[in-house]
Amino acid sequence: MIVFGSYSDSEKSKFANEILTNIIARNDLKDSEFMQIFTLVSKYDVNENLYIGALEKWYSITNNDNSKANILFFRYAYYIKNNNKDMLKALVYEDLKKANNISSLLDLNFDLKADTLIDFRNYNFGSYSFSLYKDTTLYRHLATMTLPFNQTKVVELENMLMIEKATKPTNNMATYENIFSKYSANRLYVLNFLGEKERAFVEAMNDYDIIKTFEMYKKSPAMFDDTYTGILKKTKV
User: Fold this and answer.
1) Among 154, 174, 164, 231, which Cα is nearest to 199's?
2) Contact, 209 vs 168, CB < 8 A?
């Protein structure tokens, strides 16, 4: 009815809400069916409690990591579409605290509440390939250290100095390359959408280093290089 019927947008939204209500009451749907349904209903204006409740129902049923990742992406997309920046801040900050641990990222918290008191310049819980120095410059940094200065890569932002570490953190994502590459793009989009360009740049630099270790990068380096070069240009402040 939603796809083929000649109905108004408000009527289609009503049908979509009815579908979501039906999902919450059922236990027999497969991951592929959930995916088709959410791809459809996400096009319409639907009730937040029903949409998130139906995502939570899917999450409670599935044991598939790709499906859990899709649930994560659908939840972000819902709040982007509805311009709920306070909820997006809470979601992405919660994810940042998980420091790219995929198992933790796929452990979704459906009780999370919107939060406006979030400090996106708190980098204490991350695992980065760069040492991060807030509110300083390379000139000031060099004035406080003993020469020679042998670091290979230095990036100066408006309020951040990034110096590449000689020994970078290891990552264990051999079975999660596809999920992480999609998750990274999603998170960076959200941070930029929120206007958190410094954090987006720092995370993009780190994610890019991680992705360069992937087998999928070795097969298509140009695609990833173009993507991350574009993101870094857009978010550098």
Assistant:
1) 231
2) yes
CA gap 188, 201 in Å, rounded: 8
The DSSP element (H or E) to which 197 belongs, if any, is helix 197-211
In a domain, 201, yes or no: no
Residue percentage of the chain with pLDDT more than 70: 95
Per residue in 176-225, pLDDT tens? 999 999 999 999 999 999 999 999 999 999 999 999 999 999 999 999 99
- Give me the pLDDT at residue 174, please: 86
pTM above 0.90, yes or no: yes
- Considering the domain boundaries, does residue 47 fall inside one? yes
Query: How many independent structural domains does the chain possess?
Result: 2
* 132 secondary structure, DSSP code: E
Buried b (16+ CB within 10 A) or exposed e, 170-202: ebebeebbebbbebbbbbbbbbbbbebbbbbbb
Q: Where are the beta strands (DSSP E) in the chain?
A: 130-134, 154-156, 160-164
154 is in which domain, residue-wise?
A: 130-164
The pLDDT of 160-171, averaged and rounded, is 90
Burial class from Cβ neighbours inside 10 Å (0-12, 13-18, 19+) for residue 60 reads exposed
